[in-house]
Predict the 3D structure of the following.
Amino acid sequence: MKIFFVTGNKGKLLEASELLGPLGHNVVQFAHNGVIPEFSEPQSEGIEEVAISKMEQALGMIPGEIDSDSAVIVEDAGLFIGSLGGFPGPYSSYVEDKLGLDGILRLMEGKTNRNAEYRAVVAFHHDGITHTFRGACEGSIGSEKRGDGGFGYDPIFIPRSSNGRTCAEMTASEKSVISHRGEALRKLLEFISLPST
Ligand code: ITT
């Protein structure tokens, strides 16, 4: 299947290609008239609403252009920090831009509870229907940035099952085995492998 991934984030695109490519799916970045579009993200909603809103905006650009061998996916993700009441959550992108990872580390200074979770929702549109799949990855916020792999919050996020390494210290395939995006995409894969789809 040819899968158009609506994202401006090359890290996400790479992770999806690594997982779906070997199974024969061709993941390409969604573009409209050769341009990667930017979408408005509703700021006060959960990540599922954000993913569905972006899917509707993308489909609105290409009415009737998706054939039965193709599909569109949108993925919205965020970092939810327990002691900050789930912040930055759906605002993760904005906060990464404005505060950066150093800003998050400052907000976490002196906090003993450093539990956090990455969450992802993948919206998948095929044959006129949009389905959603969720994934989560539990872990904690480190006390400093470590590693140069991955993207976004990876240098400060330590998954529970990584022996203390941050996601940025893991390879893309190691991250994919335990990540929120990996889990959501594996659920999607299971769904598209069903005989009825
Ligand atoms: P889109 O174009 O797909 O929306 P984005 O980077 O804006 O790309 P999101 O809104 O889904 O993606 O991501 C929210 C924030 O969470 C953003 O700052 C990402 O860098 C960060 N994030 C999402 N998944 C991540 C991951 O696997 N590792 C590290 N940071 C992640």
The chain has one domain: 2-193.
